[in-house]
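Lab notebook page, bench 4
Experiment: in silico fold of construct C2
Operator: M.H.
Input chain length: 177 residues
Purpose: comparison with the prior construct
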Amino acid sequence: MILDFFKTAVNLKKIQRKGWKDKLSISNPESVADHSYSMAIMGMIISDLENYDTEKIIKMILLHDLAESEIGDYTTGQIPLEKKNDLENKAFLKILENLPDLIKSKYLGIWNEYQENNSQESKIVHQLDRLEMALQAKTYENEGHSKEKLESFFESAKNEISHPKLKELFRNIMENT
């Protein structure tokens, strides 16, 4: 059963981030796994610097897009947020069925905390999601993709990042990358 869980996670390598494909017409954009890995590195560093619960943040990052291995990657506005959340929650519960109860319970708690976005760790993870997106957008811009087409990604990050350290990093991305 655990092997089925691992196979689900491996499938994230094949799920392309839809926003890059739709808005930039990139034929081979980063995968959800690429995104999660970059976020995990960022989360580890920020968490250690800011004395957060690093283990919880890394677990939250690794779990936050896992449902996309079952349902795919939906962009904002593609389907109603309530429907997206419902699809993700059902997929996540299905994925967890392959784990022992003790682990299932822990991961479901972390998932729910992320979904509710009411803890210090979940707020940082949501903002790291935007920061990683901005860094990837800047990478695509540096590769020659249209700044105008990337503007909505930068604007979203700017509007949603409020943590002082992450705001500073966002400014550095925009000015120096």
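Observations: Residues 120-142 form the longest helix (23 residues). The chain has one domain: 2-176.
Next step: discuss at group meeting.
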